[in-house]
Structures are given as structure tokens and as C-alpha cells.
Amino acid sequence: MSNKLSWTQPEAISRLRVHEGVRASESNLLGEFPQEREISSYFHAIWGRIEENLDLPLTSDEALRKFKSLVIYDMPDGTRSTLSVNADIDVGVDAALYCVALIHTLKSLGSKRCVIMTHTSYNRGRGAEGIGRIFKLVSSGTKLMARYAEAERIGINMLGLREEYEMREHLGNLPSVPKSAFDVFFLVDYAEELFDDPRIRAGFETLPEVDVCVRHTKLNMSGGWIPTKLLNSTFMYCQNGTLLSNWDFEELTALASLALLAKVMHRGEGLVKMYGDIDEVKARYQLRELRLFNEQVYLRENPTKLFFVGSPHGMYQFYF
Prior knowledge:
Elements: H1 10-15, H2 26-31, H3 36-54, H4 60-65, E1 71-75, H5 91-108, E2 113-117, H6 128-152, E3 154-159, H7 168-171, E4 182-187, H8 198-203, E5 212-216, E6 234-238, H9 249-265, H10 278-290, E7 294-298, E8 306-311, E9 314-319
Parallel strand pairs: 1-2, 1-5, 2-4, 3-4, 5-6, 7-9
Antiparallel strand pairs: 6-8, 8-9
Helix pairs in contact: 3-9, 5-6, 5-9
């Protein structure tokens, strides 16, 4: 049987309707965001399944407390190829709703900061039509983000608003929130070469150190590397596109939970790794090299999301 997906298949069509029950007007969607206790209950259930499958010595209560120091860098993508888009909502609003919902989820779990890629200057390589589409997405989502930020005391930090940037005036007037409960750092018209300019690089010093980079739909970091801020970070790939019509809050809680897991599993690794004894080296070699460790973990029946998380001994594929 062919593995190719035919868009005439009933299951393919029904997949696009999974979230029709929560689709509504932009205002209604903001009003329907779940309370902190509901998202917390999602987390405890999801982490319990992670703990059971991986035999983790970390309870959900202990894990939840670790969100306070977790910094996720999310790189949204897939707005052109994710076909769950709600016809009643502008695609730019749908994309912005994803970002707002992610912020809401992280804040509800106790996180204090995150970084989100808005777009890179490399997108200009698509020509006037391509970059124009991105400007339209940014423009249509700005008011939504501003309204949520004021209501929930979210500090919005726009990094990359150079004088010549076409959307500078539009994005530079976002409200300032004193004593914010959560801070989000948006990278705007970003290019790695910006760090070659000391004046621009100084503006990025406000960025927090990133723990986990989350990349959607494309398994790479092309164009989004942040020099000096990713030295101790790890990477998580999510195969699914970033429109809120393609997500619900239980799935977003799974994303946050697995990002935390990625950080936990890489603690003491990377640039600071020190081997304690030869037995640790042998155990790692056996899993990584001899067994070619690669484990699939199903966190619920009928999964709709796929995440790839690396570990010191191999890859995990989490289906949720």
C-alpha cells in the first residue's frame, strides 16, 4: 500500500476538521483561552506519561517548578503549507494566535521569558511578493498581540527594528507594560550578520540565554542562529505548522513539556560535559553506537503532533 497521502481520503479530510470546534472569531478565541489550572492539569497528565515511558526520576510537581527558569526560542513556520487554516480568520491572525497561545501556555506553567522569531531578512530573497506577504502577516497580528499583552501584562520586546525597516513605525508603537508578568522577545527582520555590527549587537544583549530551540516543519537552524545566546541550548524539532487552527492547548502543553524534557536530558552535557567514570562511557557507547538508540514514544492514542528530541545516547520521537 502506498504511504502517499491522498487528499481524497476521508481520514485526510477529517484531519483538517479536528479543531473546527474551537474555531471562532479572533476576540472569542482570546476569551476562550484556558485558565492556568487547566493547563497545569494537562501538564501533570502529560508529564506522568513521559515519566512512565522514560523511567524519569522527576515527578510532575518537581518538573513544573523548573519552568520558572526555562527559556524557549520558538521558530514558527508552515503558514503556507498548513491547510488547517480557518477560512473565517485571516491567516496572519491565525499565525499570531499561535504565538499568543504559546506565550499563554508557557506563562500558565510558570515560565517567565521566551524568544520568538518573527521573520528573517533572508526572506527578502523570495522577492517583493514574498516579503510583502510576511509584512501582511505581521501587520494583521500586531493588534491582537498588543491587546493580549495589555490584558495579561506581557512585556513585548522587538529586536531588529532598524531605521530602514519597512514595518518599524507599525511595530514600534506597541504598548509598554510596566512590571510585566512575562517577557517575550521577538526577532524582527533578523539576520545572523547583524552581530557583525557592534551597535546592533548591543541591542541584542537584552536577550536571555536560550535553553531550547524549537523549530517547526524544517529540521534545521538555517538563518536563525543567535550568537552568544545559544551556547548551552539544545534543539527540538516539531513537524507541525504554526497556525493556532492546527493546535489546541493540550498539544501546546505537550510542546512545552517536551521542551522542558529536552533541557533536563541535556543538563551537564554540551560545553560543560565531564565524564565521571569508564562505566558511564561504556553505557553511552553501547546505546548510541551498538544499539543505534532511536525510540518512539506514544503519549496518547491517535496522535496529531510529532516531536524529535535528542538525548546524550540517541533520538526520541514523541507522538502526541
